[in-house]
Design brief:
The chain is of the alpha/beta class. It is built from 25 helices and 35 strands.
């Protein structure tokens, strides 16, 4: 007995390795068993036992990994001065080694116990015929035909018309090619039925010389498909067996023929399988068609589909018709009325799936009493009695399980894990992936990370927890520790760093947490460290050893003081080349240039967002070069006079923010960044935006410029959002081609996609360049531009939806603001002309605030046919305005009629002491909110009759 235990202790590593090997084999068996359990209940019971053992195996292997880490740490501390190599033996400190022996013995006994369970279950494996390799398909696939009962099809008339029209339309391909039409949708949604309806349509039958129906299914068997085509074309099955001979025969048979080929239930995404078959179909007559049904959009893409038709779920009425046709068959009127309300609720469970409506309708056909119907309604489908359950499983679940079992084994387990969440639960993608990782569902292969191939989890987020107990270190199986929003948490225990299997630590928004434990560097399996917006002031020294890290969102530098000796510097980032997503580096004035260079940020290829805070000189930022694929860059509190040279090499940059760069006077040619979508310049010393900022040069000789060259001087080609502050001058770019001709063409295309423009705190700015007033502009805000006395013709912006004017010196809003001119001769104006003088055609929100000098807001009264009984305004102004706010315009005397659009829903007027008369607000049919404050109104017009439904505050 003693000898046996000694052998156990000595061979524990060997036994652990063997157990790992068994775990890999069992995962293959699990895949086969999961497929067979659908039809064999005995396999389900065996599978549950096997999964339990798998969890036991996983736990004991975790304990073994933890023990190894503990021993290595102990050896390292014992030999820290002489740096001897760690040895796993029974020699050394007697007390420490004795603990190792005891721990080895305990683990060895657990491994032995689990191994015995595995052996017992393995003996049962043969009885169920399970194989290590992936088993064959255990689910019978229904073979479809072209036959259909049209009388029982509901709610698909429109889809049928679309499909038939595509089949009969002129070919979009060359004469030798065949148009492919793909019907894509969920299993059971009715793709095959629609294909059958189109296949049997009278016009379709008359249009094609031959119609061929092939049920493809899985696997994609080219030989079988070719034989099926030939059988229909020639009337008999050929004796050929070689694919080459069969395809040549197909090619000869369809030569010059206009045919329709339906390939029903296609699954394969293998391009080679399809191309061999398609090549044999060339040479047919123009107008031939291939109609494909598939559950996968990727299949439609692979087959080079000309027309993809996505089949949506049925309406409730159509589902109800299918259900009622079966469920109420041969029932009396009174009985139908008694069960209709329950039937409608059952139909709601079908979620528009015709197969579900059909199967449940058939199930209810045999239910005679209301109680039986209520039992079905109140039960989940898997809780029905055995007979009903069998019927539902076979007719609904089995067809749908085809999609499930088409998934890779790894994806199937991840999919099943989601079933633990409540219905309609919104899952965070990144959190879900971490949980899959913690469960061991995702395994890295080669260079592929677990995250790319997609926890036993302790989630204490949003709790009021103030302290984590020291005993947390004993939870050695813990993978994910989520403490997000624990805002009273002051510290983390050092014992937490004993969690050698921990993969994710989240302390975001733990504002009271000032530092991480020193031993955090022991968490060698940590992949995600999230500390953004916490109180953590520095990273612990040695953090660079955590080379498994994939997420490190925040890296504050110490910058001196009492914590400097235990704080990490920038060079610790050197070996963390796998970090991706966002990285926020704070307090960079505490980082040296040599340390910054050693960080080698450019090697972090997965890094997409970089935030740099508090940099004092140009040299430091120059060595912090990020990877060229960076998508977002923010630089805050920068003391240099110029931006780094590497910035213009960021050709994939989408967002750029420069704020509080107090010495920055000149910008690089940012207009040359081809993918820049958002640019924010705030609180810098840049006083002028000129052609250099746009990234173009003056053209001396424009006579020979052609269309191709015009395209080459496009600046900010993808910019959608621009925020500017502190600028004094903003130069326009006026150089044009053909200036002496009647028609001129600008050689510069600047910000053609701009949608949002915000200009703030530019008190010396006198004018805006024309190019920022792009036709695509949807939102414009002008704030504290006190020298801007005349506004450009903003009414000409065809897509502007929101306009905010605040703290401007504008004294008058007239026709120039609207972008229209007075019409001298209205006699010949027709409907077309009226459309051409529309102003603010899409404006929905107008907010005018603190325009202290605004005195006049001109109305536009010019009309067509003023002498007639009926008059038509030649100006259409703000026809879609929904929200109007006017605050603190003390000199404003009146509002123009055009702001009182019929679409107006909210009107707020305040601080307009000179506004003495209100317009006829009672005529506004859609007004919902009306608020007055601090007005000089002395009387209301006769039309000031407000509906009681309008919310009013006066």
């Amino acid at each position: 007995m003693v000898q046996e235990e000694v052998n156990l202790v000595g061979d524990v590593k060997k036994q652990a390795d063997k157990l790992k090997s068994n775990l890999i084999d069992i995962q293959s068996v699990l895949e086969d068993a999961e497929r067979k359990q659908v039809k064999e209940r005995a396999v389900r019971v065996w599978l549950d036992k096997l999964k339990d053992v798998c969890y036991d195996m996983d736990d004991v292997l975790d304990e073994w990994s933890y023990a190894i880490l503990t021993w290595k740490t102990g050896d390292a501390e014992e030999n820290i001065h002489n740096q001897q190599k760690i040895r796993c033996s029974f020699l050394g400190s007697p007390c420490f080694r004795l603990n190792q022996v005891v721990q080895r013995r305990d683990i060895a006994l657990k491994i032995k116990e689990v191994s015995e369970k595995v052996d017992e279950i393995a003996n049962e494996r043969a009885r169920h015929g399970l194989q290590i390799n992936r088993g064959t398909d255990e689910i019978q696939r229904l073979i479809s035909t072209s036959l259909v009962d049209e009388l029982n099809v509901c709610g698909r008339d429109n889809e049928k018309k679309i499909i038939v029209s595509k089949l009969l339309a002129e070919s979009s391909q060359e004469a030798r090619d065949v148009d492919v039409i793909s019907l894509v949708g969920l299993g059971g949604i009715g793709k095959t039925t629609l294909a059958q309806l189109a296949f049997n349509d009278a016009e379709v039958t008359a249009h094609f010389e031959k119609k061929i129906w092939v049920c493809v299914s899985e696997p994609f068997d080219e030989v079988r498909i070719a034989k099926a085509i030939l059988e229909k074309l020639e009337g008999s099955t050929p004796n050929l067996v070689e694919l080459q001979s069969l395809l040549e025969r197909v090619s000869q048979s369809i030569k010059g023929m206009r045919f329709l080929l339906v390939l029903d239930d296609v699954w394969t995404e293998n391009h080679e399988h399809w191309e061999q078959l398609k090549r044999s179909l060339t040479g047919c007559a123009r107008g031939s068609r291939i109609l494909v049904t598939t559950r996968k959009a990727t299949v439609a893409t692979m087959m080079r589909t000309n027309h993809q038709i996505n089949i949506e779920t049925l309406s409730d009425d159509a589902c109800r018709s299918i259900f009622n046709h079966l469920a109420f068959h041969e029932r009396g009127k009174d009985e139908c009325e008694r069960l209709t309300d329950i039937g409608n609720e059952i139909v709601n469970k079908c979620k528009g799936l015709p197969l579900a409506a059909k199967v449940l309708g058939g199930l209810m056909q045999s239910k005679r009493t209301r109680e039986e119907w209520e039992d079905v309604l109140c039960s989940e489908l898997w809780r029905l009695d055995q007979v009903d359950k069998d019927q539902v499983e076979k007719k609904i679940f089995l067809p749908l399980l085809l999609s499930y079992y088409d998934l890779p084994s790894v994806v199937r387990r991840c999919f099943l894990y989601c079933a633990m969440f409540p219905k309609d639960y919104k899952m965070n993608r990144d959190e879900l992936v971490k949980m899959w990782m913690a469960q061991g569902y995702l395994k890295g292969t080669g260079s592929r990370d677990m995250e790319v191939v997609g926890e036993q989890s302790l989630n204490l987020s949003q709790s009021s927890i103030k302290e984590i107990p020291k005993e947390v270190g004993k939870l050695i199986h813990l993978r994910d520790l989520n403490l997000k929003w624990c805002r009273e948490l002051v510290s983390l225990p050092e014992t937490m760093c004993d969690l050698c299997n921990l993969q994710s630590l989240d302390v975001r928004e733990c504002w009271s947490l000032k530092e991480l434990p020193r031993a955090t560097v022991k968490l060698i399996n940590l992949r995600h460290l999230c500390i953004d917006d916490s109180g953590v002031a520095f990273m612990p020294k040695g953090i660079g050893r955590l080379t498994c890290l994939r997420t490190l969102d925040y890296f504050p530098l110490c910058g001196g003081g009492e914590n400097e000796s235990k704080a990490a510097n920038l060079r610790e980032l050197k070996n963390l080349d796998h970090i991706g997503g966002s990285l926020d580096i704070r307090n960079l004035r505490g980082g040296g240039i040599e340390d910054a260079a050693e960080a080698q940020l450019k090697n972090k290829k997965r890094l997409l967002h970089l935030y740099l805070f508090l940099i004092e000189d140009d040299n430091l930022i120059e060595v912090l070069q990020p990877p060229s694929d960076l998508e977002r860059l923010s630089i805050h509190n920068y003391g240099g006079i110029g931006l780094p040279n590497w910035m213009m090499a960021l050709t994939r940059l989408q967002e750029l923010e420069l704020s509080y760069c107090f010495n920055l006077e000149v910008l690089p040619p940012l207009g040359r960044l081809p993918n820049l979508e958002s640019l924010r310049l705030y609180a810098s010393e840049v006083r002028r935006l000129d052609a250099g900022f746009v990234g173009i040069e003056e053209v001396e000789n424009a006579n020979n410029i052609n269309e191709g060259e015009i395209a080459r001087v496009t600046a900010f080609p993808k910019l959608k959002s621009l925020e500017i502050s502190g600028v004094e001058e903003w130069d326009g770019i006026e150089r044009r081609v053909g200036e002496e001709d009647a028609t001129t063409t600008s050689i510069f295309i600047i910000m053609p996609q701009l949608q949002q423009l915000i200009i703030e705190e530019c008190p010396l700015l006198r004018a805006l360049p024309d190019y920022v007033l792009a036709a695509s502009l949807q939102e414009l805000r002008l704030y504290d531009c006190r020298n801007l006395e005349v506004l450009p013709p903003l009414g000409r912006l065809p897509n502007l939806e929101s306009l905010v004017l605040e703290m401007l010196q504008v004294r008058r809003l007239d026709a120039g603001f609207l972008g229209i001119e007075e019409v001298e001769n209205a006699d010949n104006i027709n409907e077309g002309k009226i459309a051409r003088v529309a102003a603010f055609p899409k404006l929905k929100r107008l907010h005018i605030r603190t325009l202290f000098g605004l005195e006049e807001w001109d109305g536009i009264e010019r009309r067509v046919g003023e002498e007639d009984a009926t008059t038509t305004s030649i100006f259409i102004i703000m026809p879609q305005l929904q929200r109007l706010e006017i605050d603190f315009c003390p000199l404003l005397r009146a509002l123009p009629d055009y702001v009182l659009a019929a679409s107006l829903q909210e009107l707020r007027l305040g601080g307009c002491g000179n506004l003495e008369v209100l317009p006829p607000l009672g005529r506004l049919p859609n007004l919902e909110t009306l608020k007055f404050s601090w007005l000089g109104v002395r009387r209301y017009t006769d039309d000031m009759e407000l509906d009681v439904a309008v919310h009013t505050a006066i």
